[in-house]
Specification:
Elements (H helix, E strand, L loop, with lengths): L5 H33 L4 H16 L2 H23 L9 H27 L2 H9 L4 H31 L11 H12 L2 H30 L9
Length: 229
């Protein structure tokens, strides 16, 4: 049915998953830093975080991808020519794709984590400090788990969107799932077959992700008493 392109699609799918996971790591770091900055008492940090999230929500993902890959490459090489510190640099599509997607979703994770921090009752932290815990212990044992429980639904939704958004890396030449599907569709003139196969693979990714997040939600809910309505 796939005319021998099955292994090629599988390689593309694994690359897509790699891009998504690497982007997730970057997005979580940026999201946590952005959330802390937005909740900071330092006005400059709040302005910087607000500017970051505003910029990302205003610029389409595709434009950001092209700007960072092509524009960033021109900028890096221009600086190298002017300073003489390095020669010609060819930006790797994988690195550019991961950095762009991580940068984009870091802004969305910022809002999710900020809301999760605000949802944790202040009395929980105060009680832990009064009990004799250090601030690091409070974060690890009290605030962190409670915050994660509130953030998990938003994080899972953004992760599902992130997996699908990895398709934009195909425009910069990365041989991801969509790029391999397009090549196979062009060679066989059967676009419906290969794009349908790509849909199926994305569906597998999202289904497994939902199951994993559901398991994690149950784990975080252990010991939580539910109030009957």
């Amino acid at each position: 049915m796939l005319h021998g392109y099955g292994p090629s699609l599988l390689e593309g799918a694994l690359l897509t998953l790699g891009v998504a996971l690497a982007s997730l790591a970057i997005a979580l770091v940026l999201g946590l830093a952005g959330a802390v900055a937005k909740l900071s008492s330092v006005r400059q940090l709040r302005w910087l975080a607000q500017g970051y999230t505003t910029l990302i929500r205003a610029v389409p993902d595709l434009v950001m991808m092209l700007l960072i890959f092509y524009g960033g490459q021109v900028l890096v090489n221009h600086v190298g020519d002017r300073t003489g510190w390095w020669g010609y640099v060819d930006v790797d599509p994988f690195v550019a794709g991961v950095l762009t997607i991580g940068f984009i979703f870091g802004a969305y994770f910022t809002e999710v984590l900020r809301g999760a921090f605000l949802a944790v009752p202040a009395g929980q932290k105060e009680a832990a400090l009064a009990f004799g815990m250090t601030p690091a212990q409070v974060l690890r044992r009290v605030t962190g788990p409670l915050m994660l429980r509130h953030a998990l639904p938003g994080l899972s939704n953004n992760w599902l969107v992130m997996i699908k958004s990895t398709a934009i890396v195909s425009v910069i030449g990365l041989s991801d799932l969509m790029n391999r599907s397009a090549q196979a569709a062009g060679a066989t003139r059967e676009p419906f077959v290969f794009y349908l196969a790509a849909c199926g693979i994305y569906l597998v990714f999202t289904t497994l992700s939902e199951l994993a997040f559901a398991w994690l939600q149950r784990r975080l809910a252990i010991g939580v008493r539910r109030v009957a309505l």
